[in-house]
Amino acid sequence: MSDGVLTSRSVQDDEFAVDGPAIPLGSSDEGGLVTDEANFPAGGEVIEPGRALALADFTPPALGAGERLLRLAYRMGVPVSALASPFRKQAKPRLLATVINPLPGHKVAGTALRAGHFLVHGAKSPIAQVEFAGAARLSPPLEKVVHSFSWLADLEASAPREAVAPVAEQILASWLNANPQMPARPGKGPAWTVANAGLRELNWLVHAPLILSGSDKVLRARILTALADTARWLDKNVTRADDLLGEVTGWCGIVAAGLLLPDGKPRRLFGEAGLIRALGELVGDDGGVLSRSPIAQMEAIALLVRLRACYQAVRRDPPQALETILALLVPPLLALTHGDGSLGSWQGGWAVDGAEVGALIAATGVRTRPLRDVRQWGYQRVAAQKGILQFDAAPPPLAKHARSGCASTLAFEFSHGGHRLVVNCGGAAAAGGLMPVRLEQGLRATAAHSTLVLDDANSTAILINGKIGSGVSEVEIDRRILTSEKLGGATRLEASHNGYVGRFGLTHQRILILRDDGTELRGEDLLIPAGKKGKNGKVGFAIRFHLGPGVEVGLSEDGQGVGLALPDGSYWQFRAGGGQVTVEESIWADGHGRPQAIQQIVVSGLVSRGGGNFAWLLKKMG
Fold it and tell me: Residue 140 gets which letter from DSSP?
């Protein structure tokens, strides 16, 4: 099977019993553990097998012969003036309409700008000390904010236009002075990546009233010229983006320019075809972007929402394919929300605040429910009253798609109500704000996720620049519903990966069972020999459960359990059926990507290379 393939198998009814000896679990409050399916007879629903990761298929809008010829001529390099108005003088740069910004920024960050600082993931950087030319590299998050001009939305949200426009003009003038010429192609500094140039073009157009309403006519002319020049640069270089999301960003800038700059019809037609093709390559059949990153998913949605606002400004309907893709992107993102609406921490992301996620979804106008079984994107979701379980049941993204690729296969997050009990550290993509850059590699490691680790080794190799190497190439997943007259219902997830087969000859299998009342999560981690004969010797293992913020912990007297007191006053108990249970320090990236100190439960010991199994229970008491 090829790298990065997610498969699924249907288990026969008699296979529901967990391999290896089960640990007896009662429902009493005395800390006993549950057996796996002893109380849930077989015969539950079998979810149909998933298919290999497939790209979504979208086609450009249907055009007449004349428009097709126009698009072809523009793609071949015929000047806009020769296509749009061959017998008129070239139109002067101007804007054809004013866009209403559909996505307000962050007021706190905008207030910091007015006070003279960029505020990115909690870190302040004086504007006067920022190297706009890119000679001295900034931290990646700050670099993106500065050169994409995403800060314009924050500034706009902080005060009336007349109060913030001078700040915007001053920063923009400094940027233009530092970047007087465009390079022939991308690679000459962070200002001229396709992603930053495309987002900059889009932000300049969406926030034009903020940067073009001043009395300085010379600056206004420079900005309009920069808009036209950047659009032409994108025309030539859009396919040289670092990744697919960067290319999609570049195409959005091209289409927006085609809508809002004079004589833009050829550019718009050219851009629409390229954008829809690139989106088809970026998005899987179930709507998840191939980087498997919820942050990238949000970026893709935000791009289309802003681009749609550009269509609305000129009173044109966007191609139906764009609306279809937007509707496809929303349900997978919702699958990674917890009870308070905030995001789980996956593939370098952080626990983005529920209000921010909600505002983005509201701006799409898409009304839908979360996908519970995102086969191609790879995240399973189980909602059980107040309990929400998220489970990574897929290989990491391929290196060409990864931005902050993480070795998180078979990790999970679990929340109850508005409180997170088990989390992943998250925040690798925010490293460079208050989250130190030196932690970026560690935050992408298997140990930074709530799953099993063998010999402190990553299940998939973590490389530099957000890329990942060899490791997990195949995951098997089975999902079914269990029923019991005595205990009610439950959802059972079983998955396994081959990331440790090459080094240790062991397959990691994880079984999770969440009862329908959301108060009991039972799990078992199994290590199964990949060959007919297990290898000799032993290897160290650690099963990590990173705990949510504000959770107070206390070890039980017998050393096999941990009491968990949540901020809402509820009390949970964690019990393990083997290994040594300890409590250690950990770190978690909050809703703004800032580091917060948390704790983690670690079940550790030595396991035979012939295999082993470790059961555990997380249960609400009282």
Answer: H
Whether residue 591 is found in the same domain as residue 444: yes
Question: Residue with structure tokens 């007349």?
Answer: 162
Model confidence pLDDT, tens digit, residues 266-323: 999 999 999 999 999 999 888 999 999 999 999 999 999 999 999 999 999 999 999 9
CB atoms within 10 A of CB 239: 11
Residue 343 per-residue DSSP state: B
Looking at the structure, do residues 140 and 19 belong to the same domain, yes or no?
A: no
Structure-derived torsion over alpha carbons of residues 280, 328, 510, 450, reported in degrees to the nearest 10: 100
Strand, coil or helix: 316: coil
Distance CA 603, CA 622 (A): 25
The dihedral built from the CA positions of residue 129, 135, 139 and 141, taken in this order, carries a sign that is positive
Question: What is the DSSP annotation of 349-408?
Answer: -----HHHHHHHHHHHT------SEETTTTEEEEEETTEEEEEE-SPPPPTTT-SS----
82 in any annotated domain: no
DSSP per-residue codes, 401-469 = T-SS----TT-EEEEETTEEEEE----GGGTTSSS-GGGHHHHTSGGGSSSEEETTB-SS-B-STT-B-
The answer on 107 and 39 residing in a single domain is no
Q: Which structural domain, as residue segments, surrounds residue 200?
A: 93-236
**Residue 468, token pair as written in the block:** 């990942």
Q: How many domains does the chain have?
A: 2
Residue that finishes a domain, picked among 187, 219, 236? 236
Tens of pLDDT, residues 388-440: 999 999 999 999 999 999 999 999 999 999 899 999 999 999 999 999 999 99
> Of 236, 259, 280, which marks where a domain is finished?
236
Sign of the dihedral through C-alpha 170, 223, 311, 272: negative
Same domain, 11 and 153: no
